[in-house]
Design goal:
By secondary structure, this protein is mainly α. It folds into 2 domains: about 250 residues, no CATH class; about 70 residues, no CATH class. About 45% of the residues lie in helices and about 10% in strands. The protein has 18 helices and 7 strands. Strands 1-2-3 form a 3-stranded mixed beta sheet. It has a two-stranded parallel sheet with strand order 4-5. A two-stranded antiparallel ribbon has the order 6-7. Strand 2 and strand 3 form a beta hairpin. Helix 1 packs across helix 2, helix 7 runs antiparallel to helix 8 and helix 8 crosses helix 9. The longest helix has 25 residues. It starts with a helix and ends with a strand. The chain binds zinc ion. Zinc ion binds next to strand 1. This is Heterokaryon incompatibility domain-containing protein. Keywords: Membrane, Transmembrane, Transmembrane helix.
Length: about 425
């Protein structure tokens, strides 16, 4: 909905004052959804017969019965009930269109606003075909929408890949369960689904809290009747877990949740994030309940492992870096003199160019000198960068290529690496 709102805003739509308990009136929500529908139609226009009939399921139009009175209260009640079968609705879809308003987003990374919602889980887990609807800004600043069809499995594999890179191990287990069901038993999958749903609920400031159980209904082996799901997310979740107790050990959920800070809630607190290395042993290492704010590692995590990004190749110290100055010119003491010299020469040349620009008749020579100074300074930066290797992070060097003369070979690449300190089977510097 947030992305559809952005589309409507860009088109100049001004919503009516917010009704009680909702951000937009029913009429406005449908108008906003129509903006998304128009964008979808503009993207499908180039595909196949433009006069074809296509049936689209869109929640604001389809979650309630349009034969019933269309006022906010009736629709809200029907909508609340119907959300309990959302997983079945999306499971039955021929294809699921995934969209967010961000420029060039492919919707598979954890940062995508679509993937952060509670209802993303039932929408995507059983989709046969996924169509990525992506907007891309063209050179004339116009946003162009395009469709990229793919199989649901391939889409979920990409999401699984990015979940692992972001250390989102519960999300990783959920996708691993759907793309390769034999690898992850129901015990782990249900656990991951529940923890991920609670986490998203909390991240959304409990906006969808009353839907917590409904979002999971239809994803677990046994489902609840819609009439048994109410307006309390915790109660619905507890009922679902009770129905599925043959597949799931609820004690393991208790083992990974902190104690609730709110005594009025008869439920566990928020889940403790799994640390890298203990994600498959979570219930064991977190068996002693602790407040999640106190310690980053649960008390039984003895090793405190860490996931490291490993590069395959050495890299020259000549690329933009967010945390420190770019290029070897700034990171090596032995060429500090060159750094100071080049800086002062650049300052003097810039001063001379400024004087020339200010003098009558020398404007062109002043600008040329500015330009040449910038080029010369960049050349010095690049040359210094080629003399040194990037010395942050971890790199894998194959023994058959680097062999016994590791230090000598590395020393040829970067003088600082001529002498290394041995550590275990590896070297570090
Ligand atoms: Zn996206």
């Amino acid at each position: 909905m947030h992305s559809a709102v952005e589309l409507a805003r860009e088109a100049g739509f001004v919503p009516a004052p917010a009704p009680e308990g909702r951000e937009y009136t029913l009429a406005d929500r449908r108008t906003i959804s129509a903006y998304f529908l128009r964008l979808y139609c503009s993207a499908t226009r180039s595909q196949g017969n433009p006069d074809r009939t296509e049936y689209v399921w869109l929640d604001e139009f389809c979650l309630s019965d349009d034969q019933q009175p269309q006022n906010d209260e009736t629709v809200a009640a029907q909508r609340s009930t119907e959300l309990g079968r959302l997983a079945d609705i999306f499971r039955g879809a021929l294809q699921v269109v995934v969209f967010c308003h961000e420029d060039s987003c492919d919707h598979t990374k954890p940062e995508c606003i679509w993937g952060q919602r509670l209802f993303t889980i039932p929408e995507i887990l059983h989709a046969e075909t996924v169509v990525r609807l992506t907007r891309r800004r063209l050179e004339d600043n116009i946003m162009m929408a395009k469709l990229f069809p793919t199989t649901g499995r391939a889409f979920r594999l990409r999401m699984q890949h990015y979940a692992a890179l972001a250390n989102r191990w519960h999300l990783y287990a959920i996708f691993q369960h759907t793309v390769n069901a034999g690898a992850v038993p129901w015990q782990v999958a249900i656990h991951a689904l529940v923890v991920e749903a609670i986490r998203r609920d909390e991240a959304g400031n409990f906006h969808d809290h009353k839907f917590l159980g409904k979002a999971l209904n239809g994803l677990l082996p046994r489902r609840a009747r819609l009439s048994d799901l109410g307006n309390n997310g915790w109660n619905d979740l507890a009922w679902l877990l009770e129905l599925n107790q043959g597949f799931y050990n609820a004690a393991s959920l208790a083992a990974v949740c902190s104690i609730s800070a709110d005594n009025s809630v008869a439920w566990l607190g928020k889940p403790i994030d799994p640390a890298a290395g203990n994600e498959r042993l979570e219930p064991v290492v977190t068996a002693f309940p602790i407040s999640s704010d106190v310690a980053p590692n649960p008390p039984l995590t003895i090793i405190a492992g860490e996931t490291l990004g490993l590069r395959k190749h050495l890299k020259r110290d000549a690329r933009k870096h967010l945390k420190r100055d770019a290029f070897g010119l700034y990171n090596n003491e032995e060429i500090k003199g060159l750094k100071i010299l080049s800086w002062w020469v650049a300052v003097v040349l810039v001063l001379i160019s400024s004087i020339l620009v200010g003098s009558p008749g020398h404007l062109t020579s002043g600008i040329v000198l500015y330009y040449v100074t910038a080029i010369l300074y960049c050349i010095v930066e690049l040359l210094a960068g080629t003399m040194y290797l990037e010395r942050e992070g971890w790199v894998f060097l194959e023994d058959s290529l680097w062999g016994d003369k590791l230090e000598a070979k590395l020393g040829e690449q970067d003088n600082n690496l001529r002498s290394l300190t041995r550590w275990g089977m590896f070297h570090y510097y």
